[in-house]
Design a protein that fits this description.
With about 220 residues, the protein is α+β, with helices and mostly antiparallel strands. The chain has two domains: about 100 residues; about 100 residues, Alpha-Beta Plaits (2-Layer Sandwich). Helices cover about 45% and strands about 20% of the residues. It has three helices and six strands. It has a six-stranded antiparallel beta sheet with strand order 1-6-5-2-3-4.
């Protein structure tokens, strides 16, 4: 009698377990599948977002590169104009130029692409007052200022109307003299071309920056 009861009890447990599995097994499977599906969808979303970020980064890099090339092309054209290379100017204007472009240095300036051309920043330009009227290209002269109390080798830069725009940087005056082949402290006024630009700092304060193009004269 005792053994029969135990056997019946075991059979009842087995039947219950089978019924429980049939009732709850599919629910458990569906829950797992639902979680796995959500995980797959989340992973796909992340991958789509990553691809979109990569696409946008590549597009931004392309735009930056195109902008840098455009600025370098403009700089080359200005150099060509300064030395009278009208053929290069014409090719650039027709958007047919595919040659080398000037390298931009860390300070934002560009290398000269012509051996007869030297490009120099205008130092002290922001001590010359409001130069808004002079923004753009200009023609002028550079001339020594041996009476300068701070630097007897100073070379001032003037617009053709006589406006004092600034100086050749102190550390480049010897290079400029060597370029135009004169060691004279007080050489004659030397004709130059240049350009002045205007900007604003982070506080909205206006400032100016510029450079000159010095073209070496042909030897007589």
């Amino acid at each position: 009698m005792g053994y029969a009861f135990i056997i019946l009890a075991l059979l009842a447990i087995v039947v219950w377990a089978l019924n429980f599995g049939r009732k709850h097994g599919p629910q458990k499977t569906q829950l797992v599948e639902s979680i796995e599906r959500e995980q797959r969808e989340e992973q796909e979303r992340i991958e789509r977002e990553n691809r979109e970020r990569e696409r946008q980064a590549a597009e931004t890099a392309k735009l930056i590169k195109e902008a840098e090339r455009t600025v370098a092309m403009i700089d080359l054209m200005n150099q060509a104009k300064a030395v009278g290379d009208n053929d290069t100017v014409d090719i650039i204007m027709k958007n047919l130029y595919h040659g080398d472009l000037p390298t931009q240095y860390a300070d934002g300036s560009y290398q000269s692409m012509y051996p007869e051309l030297m490009i120099v920043k205008i130092a002290g330009i922001n001590y010359r007052g409001n130069l808004s009227a002079y923004v753009g290209k200009f023609k002028g002269i550079m001339k020594p200022e041996p009476t300068n109390e701070y630097d007897q080798k100073a070379i001032m830069i003037k617009c053709e109307d006589g406006k004092h725009l600034g100086y050749v940087p102190e550390d480049e005056t010897d290079d400029v003299r060597a370029f135009i082949k004169t060691a004279d402290v007080d050489f004659k006024p030397y004709r130059i071309q240049g350009e002045i630009n205007e900007g604003e700092d982070g506080e909205g304060k206006k400032y100016f920056y510029g450079r000159i193009y010095i073209v070496k004269k042909e030897e007589e």
